[in-house]
Amino acid sequence: MDDNTVGNFLRARRQMVHPGQVGLAVDDGRRVLGLRREEVAMLAGISSDYYLRLEQGRDSHPSDQVLKALARALLLDDEATIYLQRLVTPVPERVFAPSVGSLDEEVFDFLGSWDHTAAYVLNGCLDVLACNLLASRLLPDAIYPGGSMLDQIFSDSAKAFLPNWEDEVVRALASMRERTDPNDPRLHEVVGKFMLREPEFARLWARHDVGTFSNGAGSYYIAEHGLVRLSWQNLAVPSDPRLMLVATFAVPGTPEDDALRSLAA
């Protein structure tokens, strides 16, 4: 992965802002994707030369005042602003993603007590560290200790059957970027693997999206029921903020609930 993390982030987010979003006139002959460097500098109240140094990695330690000005100019939300601050001033103690085998057996016992909810634990790199039986039946090729939700998202079946597949990928990568340390060796391993294997990954990872998602819905194939839309809820693990518990469920009494219960039977 490139060492110029601050510059890469600024460049990617600059290219995602339309001039009209920040009150700039749009020229019909404009060839630049997003904002020009000098436009970002003007909006942030800094010199064009200084902004160029930031993007090129020749200066990677802007002040808090400059960071806030850049966040406003690039229309960053709170999560993306905090991520930019983390890139500029990394935390002294690294918080690398926990690995498979690092969880106590009590976690597996807890997940196993959820009879009609598919539940599993992920680290920031979307590795599956623990799951219950229903979750492993729901996505047997991905949800097992040592499995990867990224492998599932980029599988041929997901690309073929998931509505709005690219939106699902964007959310997954935004969450991965927000929840991992940029220097985590496991993150480098995962990104390197998918950069080589998946052209879509390289394109979407380069967007530098950042975000957390607490709930939503996804489509799952269940035999004799076809594609079933199930809700999911991401729950924080208070004892370890590097972990996330995902609970996938259906409203009781619905056809989706019948499908999920058929897996548990």
Automatic annotation (TrEMBL):
Pfam families: HTH_31, MLTR_LBD. Residues 30-74 form the HTH cro/C1-type domain. SMART domains: HTH_XRE (SM00530). Gene3D superfamilies: 3.30.450.180, lambda repressor-like DNA-binding domains. It comes from the Bacteria. One of its GO terms (molecular function) is DNA binding. This is Helix-turn-helix domain-containing protein.
